[in-house]
């Protein structure tokens, strides 16, 4: 199975900060990666698909990059509603696997 | 619009089985696969399996293959996930999640609201 190593596991940031979250795949997965945001008590919501494509309706402060084994989610200017947990998901190779999550907290 | 509505919370004894339903609306039901994902309290997301609604084909991870079964009822547009031989480790919120595209398996876009399953004696 492909392991998705997500870092950091948590971070503290202030409103307006630029935030970067990374996912590393144990094998190449082309660009078959999505980023999800999950708020407490809610289902995950996809922000980015195909590593760098912005999901319709998602603010443009979210962006994704990478291909192969290294991927990044960037929030250009953190907003109060962005405090949540973020997950990456690879769906290139069976079985699909999630990263361990990154909790973004208020500093 | 696409909606996935799941059944309500369940409390089960250890050793019992649970069946969670996921009723779909707003799209051509048979065209897309549906995944199940669970999340134990305070933990991350774990993929539990996939069913192709048109074919009935299923894929399950090795860790759950002996205990999980996914089925569909096209007449009611409902997908079911049954998990057997429950232990306290199965206490989690269970989500159904539809594939983004009919040919892009496991690329989950639409999610149900989640169903809490508590296993306790």
Keywords:
heterodimer, A: mainly beta, seven-stranded mixed beta sheet, 11 strands, B: 121 residues, four-stranded antiparallel beta sheet
C-alpha Rg of chain A, in Å? 13 Å
- Tell me what portion of residues of chain B adopts beta-strand conformation: over 45%
> What sequence of helices (H) and strands (E) makes up the elements of chain B?
EEEEEEEEEEE
Oligomer: heterodimer
Ranges of chain B with pLDDT <50 over ≥5 residues? none
Backbone structural class of chain A: mainly beta
N-C termini distance of chain A: 36 Å
Overall body shape of chain B: globular
Largest sheet of chain A: 7 strands, mixed
SS elements, strand count of chain B: 11
Radius of gyration of chain B: 14 Å
What would you say this structure looks like, in words?
- The complex is a heterodimer of chains A (107) and B (121).
- By secondary structure, chain A is an all-beta fold.
- Chain A is built from no helices and 11 strands.
- In chain A, strands 2, 4, 5, 6, 9, 10 and 11 form a 7-stranded mixed beta sheet that branches.
- In chain A, strand 7 and strand 8 (70-75) form a beta hairpin.
- Chain A starts with a strand and ends with a strand.
- Chain B has 121 residues and is mainly β.
- Helices cover 0% and strands 55% of the residues of chain B.
- Chain B has strands spanning 3-6, 10-12, 18-25, 33-39, 46-52, 58-59, 68-73, 78-83, 92-101, 104-111, 115-119.
- In chain B, strands 2, 4, 5, 6, 9, 10 and 11 form a 7-stranded mixed beta sheet that branches.
- In chain B, strand 7 and strand 8 (78-83) form a beta hairpin.
- Chain B is globular.
- The termini of chain B are far apart.
- The relative contact order of chain B is 0.32.
- The mean pLDDT of chain B is 97.
- Chain A binds chain B through residues 32, 34, 36, 38, 42-46, 49, 55, 87, 89, 91, 94-101, and chain B through 35, 37, 44-47, 59, 61, 95, 97, 100, 104-109, 111-114.
């Amino acid at each position: 199975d492909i392991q998705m190593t997500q870092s950091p596991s948590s971070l503290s940031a202030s409103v307006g900060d630029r935030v970067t979250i990374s996912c590393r795949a144990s094998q190449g997965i082309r660009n078959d990666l999505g980023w999800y945001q999950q708020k407490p008590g809610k289902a995950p919501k996809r922000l980015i698909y195909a590593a760098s494509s912005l999901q319709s309706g998602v603010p443009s402060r979210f962006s994704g990059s990478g291909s192969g084994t290294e991927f990044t989610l960037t929030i250009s200017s953190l907003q109060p509603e962005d405090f949540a947990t973020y997950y990456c998901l690879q769906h290139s190779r069976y079985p699909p696997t999630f990263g361990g999550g990154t909790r973004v907290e208020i500093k | 619009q696409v909606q996935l509505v799941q059944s309500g919370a369940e409390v089960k004894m250890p050793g019992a089985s649970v069946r969670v339903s996921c009723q779909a609306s707003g799209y051509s039901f048979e065209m897309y696969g549906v995944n199940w994902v669970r999340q134990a309290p305070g933990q991350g997301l774990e993929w539990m399996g996939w069913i192709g609604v048109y074919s009935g084909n299923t894929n399950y991870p090795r860790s759950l293959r002996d205990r999980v079964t996914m089925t569909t009822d096209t007449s009611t547009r409902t997908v079911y996930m049954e998990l057997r031989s429950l232990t306290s480790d199965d206490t989690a919120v269970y989500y159904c999640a539809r594939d983004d595209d009919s040919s892009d398996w496991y690329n989950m876009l639409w999610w149900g609201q989640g169903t809490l399953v508590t296993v306790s004696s």
